[in-house]
Specification:
By secondary structure, the chain is mostly helical. Helix content is 29%, strand content 0%. It folds into two domains: 63 residues, no CATH class; 132 residues, Pectate Lyase C-like, CATH 2.160.20.80. It contains seven helices and no strands. α1 runs antiparallel to α4. The longest helix is centred in the first third of the chain and has 19 residues.
């Protein structure tokens, strides 16, 4: 409770609000607060110190440690799954960001909303997999198989053109870079109809 009060006081000073008065007993039990001048900081010093001081005070009160997950967004569910077989598994919403997944099998897997941001997916097999709303942005996709795969509303980026096979894939509503799209549409394997969604591959990619 006291820690929360101290942080609130720091935030108020950083944004120019009137400082929160703390009791003498609170200051005696938390000498760092008094040392940082939470209560006695003048209006002039507030104006000159700004956000930088607020950050320094937060570190001081918190003992100098910062929660890494608050910056990075958390830790991925998988890191190294190279060569493993996830065929047919329910991996909905799982995070493979920056994971090493070379030669990994995801055949028929449920990967709705899964994250493969910056993952190494070289030669991975996503045949019949459901990648709707998934993210494969900035992933290494050389040799990847997307045969019969569903990528509705998926997030893609540079490197998608390196996929080995697009036959019968469904990209309806997926985000595609115009330059990458043109390269993909020129390929002979961009054809067929997805067996589950019945979507035409070329139409889903909005090929001319």
């Amino acid at each position: 409770m006291i820690r929360s009060v101290l942080l609130f006081a720091i935030a108020g000073n950083a944004m120019g609000f009137a400082p929160l008065p703390l009791s003498q007993s609170t200051l005696r039990s938390h000498p760092r607060a008094a040392a940082c001048g939470i209560v006695s900081m003048s209006a002039e010093s507030q104006a000159h110190k700004g956000p930088a001081l607020a950050l320094a005070l937060l570190l001081a009160v918190g003992g100098g440690a910062m929660d890494a997950s608050a910056v990075s967004g958390g830790v991925a569910d998988f890191s190294d799954v190279a060569g493993q077989d996830f065929s047919g598994q329910n991996l909905k919403g799982k995070d493979f960001s920056s994971a090493v997944a070379r030669d990994t099998k995801f055949v028929g897997a449920n990967l709705k909303g899964a994250k493969f941001f910056k993952a190494d997916l070289q030669d991975a097999d996503f045949t019949d997999a459901n990648l709707s709303n998934a993210s494969i942005e900035n992933a290494k996709l050389s040799g990847v198989k997307l045969t019969n795969a569903i990528l509705k509303n998926a997030y893609t980026g540079v490197g998608l053109e390196l996929v080995k096979d697009f036959t019968n894939s469904d990209f309806t509503g997926a985000q595609l870079r115009p330059d990458v799209q043109s390269k993909i549409c020129a390929r002979e394997d961009v054809k067929g109809t997805n067996p589950k969604t019945k979507a035409d591959t070329r139409e889903s990619l909005e090929c001319p």
